Q: What sequence folds into this?
């Protein structure tokens, strides 16, 4: 019976307008964000450019940060992104003086960074400047490294090339970028499908007749949840086919055998937990409140996560719902964050399962009228007050 | 498995408000009517039997199964709620099929029973009609078909004829009577005509209490000798309405034929003659007697 219910739920999703809006957003985002996968080519000596990378050298980071700061100090205009929004800050004279004092502590008379300043001390000074500017500036300690976007040398480019080729088999490097982009939309869009499904019984006034049927609450809720998750995963897999084939083609051109299942593994391990938690937030809050509040809650969570992750677009994981990895390659960074990433993904998968279990419990009790206190908590059952 | 429903000292509270007061009922196979004004507690009682609401106290057994065993009870109950509907973009067949799956029916059984039931409720030509395009009467018929899809031992229908035109109403009552041949059908309504036409046994509810439980004949007997009819002038009618509980008035150009309830102790005016009570008269008399209102 569960299988039949699941298929019926999938069919119902396919027939809904919300699903087509979801697909349109997904495809538009994919097309708009994912550049064409041109594949990789071996760097040649004497090339005009080998591309760019974020420097890991503290001295370089410090120098680039100071260069930026001096430029902004001179113009008395600082670009900040508080909560992700662009803002030009024109500090008062007293604030400019405070910044000048910090600069004098960091720089010598030749405007070079003092020899005896450690990177940690430098970070602390920059953090103070960020505070003076009201936050969201490029001087926040955690985002300093994004100031040092430097050209790669031939050796850097060769190392990167070999990493992509032998460690990522090309596919892995591109799959991470795919997950980075798709993770952004998948942390919000599935909530719309979940809320629509959750409110469908109420809208159709079908809850009482469905409540009175023999099917277990587990079967009813899980068939809806799994159908939603599946109908989100399927188009994501379909969208990944084109970049996956391009990666395989590029692998052949570079003389190696590509990894045909890399995208599937990344989708399963990286994107599925995001879909699970987003959908389960939608199902849980909708079942609990009989309203669309989940969209607001998830929207807020998405917004905060989005701009927390924006501090550094490569390798920001922590417990952010959408881990960021906005680059092709950087296998070493990926290796370094992998344990954190696994923890993050397991955590959200677990949370997703927990919330959908809670949804089943809420549904079960609503079904037998046990959560109906004076008919006021769940408005759709208010008619019972009429007795 | 015995075909009966037993309710013993059932109470239901919504906070401080008591919706069911010590309800005792024994319902056997056939049509059972539950009559009462709006707000009498009928829907609450239906929902308690259907496992959609928990009783605050008391015992309920549906065909021998305690109502707390929700899943078992749900498997032998068919329920048509007061404002039945289904997903608007589903067709009649899809809605039946979906609800059939929820009732635990396999594909073969659904394929056999759905066309048969749609024929029975005269929806065989509407298999592909979307639910949102159906009239109120068609929806009720679909509601009945879905409620008996899994061949339940008990069918509970809540106010099924409200809002139907007279023709639909008659058709619907007949359908329920047919269905009641081999199961319990509980028909909850505030429309006396529905009960009169279909039920042999009835219970009347008022403010959460069962104020009558018996056969239609017993109810009529209860009102025997208390119903009068008279033809009076239009001027007199206001005075009669003040003195008696009027159950019916037929206005003619200069006169009015009136039916009214008069207690044994009350004297009736000259020209009034005793008449045989109908169910509506008996119901009104009972309510009048219990509540003392007019």
A:
């Amino acid at each position: 019976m569960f299988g039949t219910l699941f298929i019926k739920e999938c069919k119902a999703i396919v027939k809904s307008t919300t699903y087509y809006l979801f697909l349109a957003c997904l495809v538009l985002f994919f097309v708009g964000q994912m550049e064409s996968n041109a594949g990789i080519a071996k760097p040649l000596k004497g090339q005009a450019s080998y591309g760019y990378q974020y420097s890991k050298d503290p001295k370089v980071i410090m120098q680039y940060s100071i260069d930026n700061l001096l430029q902004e100090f001179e113009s008395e205009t600082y670009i900040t992104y508080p909560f992700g929004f662009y803002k030009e800050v024109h500090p008062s004279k007293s604030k400019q003086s405070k910044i000048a004092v910090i600069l004098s502590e960091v720089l010598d008379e030749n405007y070079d960074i003092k020899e005896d300043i450690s990177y940690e001390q430098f970070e602390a000074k920059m953090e103070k400047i960020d505070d003076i500017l009201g936050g969201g500036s490029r001087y926040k300690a955690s985002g300093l490294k994004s100031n040092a976007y430097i050209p790669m040398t031939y050796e850097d480019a060769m190392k990167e090339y070999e990493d992509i080729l032998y460690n990522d088999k090309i596919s892995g490097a591109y799959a991470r970028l795919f997950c980075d982009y798709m993770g952004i939309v998948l942390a919000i869009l599935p909530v719309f499908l979940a809320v629509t499904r959750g409110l469908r019984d109420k809208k159709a006034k079908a809850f009482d007749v469905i409540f009175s049927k023999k099917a277990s609450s587990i079967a009813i809720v899980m068939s809806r949840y799994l159908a939603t998750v599946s109908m989100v995963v399927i188009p994501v897999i379909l969208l990944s086919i084109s970049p996956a084939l391009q990666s395989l083609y590029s692998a052949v051109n570079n003389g190696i055998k590509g990894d045909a299942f890399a995208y599937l593994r990344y989708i399963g391990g990286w994107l599925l937990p995001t879909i699970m938690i987003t959908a389960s937030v939608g199902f849980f809050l909708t079942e609990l409140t009989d309203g669309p509040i989940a969209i607001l809650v998830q929207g807020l969570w998405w917004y905060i996560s989005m701009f927390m992750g924006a501090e550094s677009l490569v390798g920001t994981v922590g417990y952010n719902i959408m881990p960021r990895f906005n680059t092709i390659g950087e296998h070493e960074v990926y290796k370094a964050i992998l344990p954190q990433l696994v923890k993050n993904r397991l955590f959200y998968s677990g949370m997703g399962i927990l919330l959908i279990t809670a949804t089943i419990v809420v549904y079960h009790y609503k079904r037998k009228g046990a959560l109906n206190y004076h008919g006021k908590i769940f408005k759709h059952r208010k008619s019972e007050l009429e007795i | 498995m015995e075909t009966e429903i037993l309710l013993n000292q059932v109470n239901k509270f919504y906070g401080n408000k008591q919706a069911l007061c010590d309800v005792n009922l024994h319902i056997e196979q056939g049509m059972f009517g539950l009559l009462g004004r709006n707000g009498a507690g009928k829907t609450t009682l239906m929902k308690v039997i259907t496992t959609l609401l928990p009783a605050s106290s008391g015992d309920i057994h549906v065909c021998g199964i305690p109502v707390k065993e929700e899943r078992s009870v749900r498997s032998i109950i068919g329920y048509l709620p007061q404002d039945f509907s289904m997903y608007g973009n589903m067709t009649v067949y899809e809605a039946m099929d979906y609800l059939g799956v929820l009732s635990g029916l396999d594909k073969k059984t659904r394929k056999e029973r759905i066309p048969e039931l749609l024929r029975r409720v005269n929806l065989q030509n509407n298999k592909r009609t979307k639910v949102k395009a159906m009239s109120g009467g068609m929806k009720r018929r679909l509601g009945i078909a879905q409620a008996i899809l899994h061949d339940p031992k008990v069918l509970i229908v809540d106010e099924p004829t409200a809002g139907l035109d007279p023709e639909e109403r008659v058709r619907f009552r007949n359908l329920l009577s047919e269905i009641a041949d081999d199961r319990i059908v509980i028909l909850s309504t505030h429309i006396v005509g529905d009960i009169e036409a279909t039920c042999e046994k009835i219970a009347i509810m008022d403010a959460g209490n069962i104020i009558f439980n018996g056969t239609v004949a017993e109810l009529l007997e209860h009102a025997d000798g208390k119903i009068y009819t008279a033809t009076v002038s239009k001027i007199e009618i206001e005075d009669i309405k003040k003195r008696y509980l009027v159950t019916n008035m037929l206005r003619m150009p200069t006169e009015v034929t009136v039916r009214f309830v008069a207690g044994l102790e009350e004297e009736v005016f000259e020209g009034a003659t005793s008449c045989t009570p109908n169910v509506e008269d008996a119901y009104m008399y009972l309510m009048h007697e219990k509540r003392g209102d007019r």
Q: What stands out?
A: Chain A touches chain B at residues 1, 4-5, 8, 12, 15-16, 200, 204-206, 208-216, 220, 367-370, 372-375, 383-387 (CB under 8 Å). Chain A has 13 helices and six strands.
